[in-house]
Amino acid sequence: LIANATKLAPLDAIRMQLKLIAFFTKHRFRDAAYLTADNVKKSLAEISHNKSEDSATVKALSDELEAQESGMRRVIPFRL
């Protein structure tokens, strides 16, 4: 499997990470959820900066991330 693995396209990677945030939040894996959210923010910023994707698609993914983060913060608030 590893020998045949390929890297996901940036938008597909973001969509997969958004699903992971939902999974981590549901199962209360706080650190994993917050780290994945940060990774999505970085990926969205790179796509926006490079203007490699449609701005409406990036906006929709950004809105979805915002909704995910809101739920994440409600279910598993970050505390030091």
Name the features.
80 residues
What does this structure look like?
It is built from three helices and no strands. Helix 1 runs antiparallel to helix 2, helix 1 packs parallel to helix 3 and helix 2 packs antiparallel against helix 3. It is globular. The chain has 80 residues and is mostly helical.
SSE series? HHH
Q: What is the residue-averaged pLDDT?
A: 93
Q: How is the biggest beta sheet arranged?
A: none
Count the strands?
0
Radius of gyration: 14 Å
Please, how many helices?
Answer: 3
Distance between the termini: 39 Å
What is the structural class? Answer: mainly alpha
Shape: globular
Low-confidence residue ranges: none
Helix % is: over 70%
Give the oligomeric state of the chains in this entry, treating copies of one chain as homo and distinct chains as hetero. Answer: single chain
β-sheet strand percentage: under 5%
Strands, helices and their partners?
Blueprint (H helix, E strand, L loop, with lengths): L9 H17 L3 H21 L4 H21 L5
Helix pairs in contact: 1-2, 1-3, 2-3
Question: What is the structure about, briefly put?
Answer:
Helix 1 packs antiparallel against helix 2, helix 1 (10-26) packs parallel to helix 3 (55-75) and helix 2 (30-50) runs antiparallel to helix 3. The protein is mainly α and 80 residues long. It has helices spanning 10-26, 30-50, 55-75.
